[in-house]
């Protein structure tokens, strides 16, 4: 049996090497597409990289099962395979990703298997993401260079490979920002220095430089976004605000393309810049969402050990397609697709899963929540409240199994917990409500610009983040905007038409009448009038058609992940 374990371990290791090699190929295309302003290929490249893991995994597991044969359920051979595999990956700079890949193989090769610490990297595994000082992964600029030479050197080191729009103006913008934000509060000393990660973070039409300055006996983080417009590359702004930086790495945004030679070190540096982001969120942000899922699950297990509360039905209006529950002390909701959908829903479980897959591959533009998909998810039975168990039995019984005092859910999604928008609007002040309903409309329009039509746009399908940003999280009715037909509602002319109980005109499945949105989008009268006045274009079919035309003409509509008012050149188009 030991002789069999080695080639099996080598097979998994070869599969992991293939994944990493392909992942890097896709990632290293990002600077080229930025240089060429090839935004269509930038997005396609992003989607192809996202598909890579599962595509390679399924092929590998099929070959692996053929080699393993009847020993697929043999614990002893799996122990030996892990031992051999561990020796192969021990010195890799991405050892933690290799561990997660092994977990994925064993879970796919042995479906329904319990989480097993002896066979997998569950609680034990590489978790050191502490930044090493004087790393070769950063450019370091001592204060003795002087502010202006430092900024010039930063832009020279970036070198996009194409001309800047106005590099001298960029330098002056950056100097002005540093003086206003940092030098008015702190005096640089001999210990002051600035560090910027050498790997550049690419997403959509932007490139981001991530850095920090040691001044006033602490690190001041910052981010420099650069755009490539029709006239050249330019610095768009300089971000010091930690909330804005956090939003750049939000779970509502697509993953960055960044050449992470040592992923744990990139995450370590990011942790020093965006200190309140969890490690699994940062791995997600740089494209290693499968390892992010592993770390999330570890957090979940740690939390179970340190808490005593019970899982309960999530607050809010119950959905027609999903059953949603939560653990009050844990910042996550769990979503199951119901066994049966009440009318007017007429889709299948597989169709719902396809909608969630669409979102996972699409640009979320800061307005759709990322999810992790789990199979055979275990919850201690004594932590499930009676009310929740009743709800699960009534709505998703086919997904449930009970073994060894564990509730096993065959398929679910996890998602960041948010405040349901409808509940927030019921109790907020008018002033706060105005701000939120404005953002609610912006969220819908930004989704439209990313070619997403939410379908059911009622407030119960949206949530609020900690920063009161409106996020869409109900995906069962989403469609591509370009597949919809936005129409002006015909005006009745005859007595029969005026008093008809049903529409007297033909309505196709994909027909949308934006003027009807006014009837149900906001309920509170003191908020509704403001919303209707602020977002008049939402109800204009012509406005939606114009967005469709731009998308069909391959125009990527960039959604800025920071307020446009902080841009150095707000008039500059990208």
From TrEMBL:
EC numbers: 2.7.11.5, 3.1.3.-
GO molecular function: [isocitrate dehydrogenase (NADP+)] kinase activity; hydrolase activity
Domain spans labelled Isocitrate dehydrogenase kinase/phosphatase (AceK) regulatory: 9-307
Pfam families in the record: AceK_kinase (PF06315), AceK_regulatory (PF20423)
Species per Swiss-Prot/TrEMBL record: Algoriphagus limi
Domain of life from the UniProt record: Bacteria
Record keyword Heme present: no
InterPro entries: AceK_kinase, AceK_regulatory, Isocitrate_DH_AceK
Ranges where the Isocitrate dehydrogenase kinase/phosphatase (AceK) kinase domain occurs: 309-564
Keyword annotations: ATP-binding, Cytoplasm, Glyoxylate bypass, Hydrolase, Kinase, Nucleotide-binding, Protein phosphatase, Serine/threonine-protein kinase, Transferase, Tricarboxylic acid cycle
Keyword Hydrolase: yes
Protein name: Bifunctional isocitrate dehydrogenase kinase/phosphatase
């Amino acid at each position: 049996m030991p002789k069999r374990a080695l080639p099996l371990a080598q097979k998994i290791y070869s599969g992991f090497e293939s994944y990493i090699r392909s992942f890097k190929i896709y990632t290293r295309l990002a600077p080229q597409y930025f240089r060429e302003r090839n935004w269509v290929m930038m997005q396609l490249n992003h989607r192809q990289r996202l598909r890579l893991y599962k595509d390679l995994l399924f092929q590998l597991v099929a070959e692996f099962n053929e080699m393993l044969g009847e020993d697929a359920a043999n614990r002893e051979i799996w122990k030996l395979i892990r031992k051999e595999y561990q020796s192969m990956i021990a010195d890799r700079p991405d050892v933690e990703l290799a561990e997660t890949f092994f977990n994925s193989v064993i879970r796919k090769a042995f479906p329904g298997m319990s989480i097993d610490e002896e066979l997998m990297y569950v609680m034990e595994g590489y978790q050191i993401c502490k930044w090493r000082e004087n790393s070769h992964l950063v450019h370091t600029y001592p204060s003795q260079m002087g502010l202006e030479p430092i900024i010039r050197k930063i832009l020279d080191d970036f070198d996009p490979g194409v001309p800047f729009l106005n590099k001298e103006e960029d330098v002056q913008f950056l100097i002005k920002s540093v003086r206003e934000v940092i030098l008015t509060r702190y005096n640089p000393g001999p210990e002051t220095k600035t560090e910027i990660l050498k790997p550049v973070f690419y997403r959509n039409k932007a490139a981001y430089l991530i850095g920090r300055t040691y001044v006033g006996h602490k690190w001041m983080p910052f981010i420099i976004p650069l755009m490539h417009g029709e006239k050249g590359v330019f610095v768009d702004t300089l971000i010091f605000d930690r909330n804005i930086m956090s939003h750049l790495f939000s779970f509502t945004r697509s993953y960055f393309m960044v050449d992470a030679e040592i992923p744990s070190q990139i995450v370590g540096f990011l942790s020093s810049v965006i200190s309140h982001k969890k490690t699994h969120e940062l791995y997600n942000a740089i494209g290693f969402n499968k390892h992010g899922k592993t770390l999330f699950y570890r957090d979940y297990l740690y939390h179970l050990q340190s808490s005593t509360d019970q899982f309960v039905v999530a607050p809010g209006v119950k959905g027609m397609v999903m059953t949603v529950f939560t653990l009050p002390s844990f910042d996550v909701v769990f979503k199951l697709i119901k066994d049966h959908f009440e009318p007017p829903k007429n889709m299948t479980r597989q169709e719902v899963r396809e909608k969630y897959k669409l979102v996972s591959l699409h640009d979320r533009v800061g307005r759709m929540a990322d999810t992790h998909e789990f199979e055979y998810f275990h919850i201690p039975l004594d932590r499930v409240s009676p009310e929740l168990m009743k709800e699960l039995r009534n709505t998703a019984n086919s997904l449930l199994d009970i073994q060894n005092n564990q509730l096993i859910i065959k398929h679910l999604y996890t998602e960041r917990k948010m405040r349901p928008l409808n509940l927030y609007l019921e109790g907020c002040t008018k002033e706060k409500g105005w701000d939120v309903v404005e953002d609610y409309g912006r969220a819908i329009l930004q989704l439209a610009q990313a070619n997403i039509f939410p379908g059911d746009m009622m407030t119960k399908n949206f949530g609020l983040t900690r920063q009161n940003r409106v996020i869409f999280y109900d995906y069962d009715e989403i469609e591509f905007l370009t597949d919809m037909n936005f129409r002006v509602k015909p005006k009745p002319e005859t007595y029969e038409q005026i008093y008809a109980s049903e529409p007297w005109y033909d309505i196709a499945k994909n027909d949308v009448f934006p003027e009807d949105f006014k009837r149900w989008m906001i309920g509170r009268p003191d908020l509704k009038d403001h919303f209707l006045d602020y977002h008049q274009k939402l109800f204009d079919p012509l406005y939606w058609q114009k967005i469709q035309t731009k998308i069909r003409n391959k125009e990527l509509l960039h959604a800025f992940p920071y307020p446009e008012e902080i841009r150095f050149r707000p008039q500059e188009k990208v």
